[in-house]
Amino acid sequence: MHQASVLAPVHADKSYLFAYQPILDRNRTVVAQEFLYRRQRESGAQIDCPTEATATVIINAFAQYGTSEFLKRRKAFVNVGEDMLLSDMITLLPRSQVVIELLETSPISRELVDRCHKLKAMGFSFALDDFVGVDYYEPLLDVVDIVKVDLLQMAPEQLAATVRRLKRWPVQLLAEKVETVDDFERCKALGFDLFQGYHFARPAPVVGKRADPAKLAVLDLLGKINRDLDDQQLEKAFKENVGLYLNLLRLVNSAAFASQAKITSIRHAITILGRRQLTRWLQLLLFTLEDKGEHPSALFEAAARRGRFMELLMEGLAGFASCKKDQAYMAGVLSMADALLLEPMDKLVAKLCLADEVSLALTDRQGLLGKLLQLCCALETADFDAVDDLALQLRVAPDDVTKAQDQALAWVCQLGYAATG
Q1: Phi/psi of residue 138, each to 5°?
Q2: What's the pLDDT score for residue 254?
Q3: Is 254 exposed, middle or buried (0-12, 13-18, 19+ CB in 10 A)?
Q4: Which of the 8 DSSP states describes residue 335?
Q5: Which range among 231-235, 409-413, 415-419 shows the weakest confidence by mean pLDDT?
Q6: C-alpha to C-alpha distance for 33 and 405, rounded to whole angstroms
Q7: pLDDT at residue 418 tops 60
Q8: Are residues 213 and 193 in the same domain?
Q9: pLDDT digits over 250-298, tens only?
Q10: CB under 8 Å to 416, separation ≥6 — which residues?
Q11: 421 exposure class (CB count in 10 Å sphere: 0-12, 13-18, 19+)
Q12: Are residue 119 and residue 249 in the same domain, yes or no?
């Protein structure tokens, strides 16, 4: 049977939930995404055919809702089982974008090793998932590009010894389950190049350390807008901070915002565009200041994605005014502000004079916005059972969750390139 006839019905299948987990480099910028997936509960959580499941991931991730655009400047890590690896279907993957993750459940046979060498010659890249030791994986270390090491599975002494042994091969080391700044710094010192975990999204207050004054100035401006101060006071605040003034003009004038006219002054921005859009730009500007890298920062991506995702889901809920969509967007973006500004969320909320619904979502994850925020977090951690439960409570169809998620990713792609371009 021709491969296209096999793939066509899989593309039409919408019975999978997806999670996209970022992979960071030593500068804490996102350089890749790992795709995780599971069949929706009503179809059964068990994936009966690994080949079909992987094909579903590939086709939906690269073709649906513009996600392929999101990956143009980064790699996509995709879990591939033995059946998929040995099938001709594997050659349909975009080899310049994909890193094939070899699962620990795949036995290391001569057939598997030979197949990897052939695919490597065709331009594919490989990563070893759940690395358990050099002796077991040695037959593959000449062909793989990346070795993923789970920090929770190795004591510090064992981790250091494993890194020393792996230096015999030209592989990049990826640390998984990096949960704290200390984990990140320790792995950097050992020679790890890539990192996966949630340390970047968690506040890590350091004694004597203060957030960037420019970011604090943005926070102050957001508070002033929420307190409904007049335009003259807002303009004065911008003019007193030249760096903030220039950054805002650059972001406002970017193509990603599709403004109808080029903004030439802060007064112009306030008058023509209105406070609603100005507030949104300020929220995102918090996460783009001093971002010099080729890729947008991990915090920027997470904050922007959460905001857009929650706004899209709110649009699909009947009976809510447009102000609720703005509140959903605000709650999503500001949910990462504590990690950015190194300050407890309750103190930040007090400074911003937010609506009660937004405050409750940010501090206690309560109310409708709180549930939407919980849904964001569940997707980020690939907690698909929680996604199912929360979607049911919110009366949101799982297909709508997937659609909003992918649309938010595509939007962040456009926005991020404008913010760092």
Answers
A1: -55, -40
A2: 61
A3: middle
A4: T
A5: 415-419
A6: 14
A7: no
A8: no
A9: 666 664 555 566 666 777 777 766 788 788 888 887 777 655 544 557 8
A10: 295, 296, 300, 301, 304
A11: exposed
A12: no
Looking up residue 314, the CATH number of its domain turns out to be 1.10.3210.10
CA distance 195 to 178: 7
Task: Mark which of 139, 168, 201 sits at the end of a domain.
Answer: 201
How much of the chain, in percent, has pLDDT values that exceed 90?
Answer: 30
Q: Which pLDDT belongs to residue 377?
A: 92
Are residues 271 and 321 both part of a single domain? Answer: yes
Domain count, the chain: 2
Q: Quick one: average pLDDT of 203-231?
A: 70
Residue 8 — very low, low, confident or very high, per pLDDT cuts 50/70/90?
Answer: very low
Quote the domain boundaries for residue 278. Answer: 203-421
Given pLDDT bands bounded at 50, 70 and 90, which one contains residue 208? very low
Residue 127, domain CATH: 3.20.20.450
Regarding whether 371 and 240 lie in a shared domain, the answer is yes
Is residue 35 within 8 A of residue 76, CB to CB? The reply is yes
Give yes or no: residues 182 and 207 share one domain: no
For residues 183 and 175, is the Cβ–Cβ distance under 8 A? yes
Describe the chain by its helix, strand, coil percentages, rounded to 5. Answer: 60, 10, 30
My answer on whether 380 and 279 are in the same domain is yes
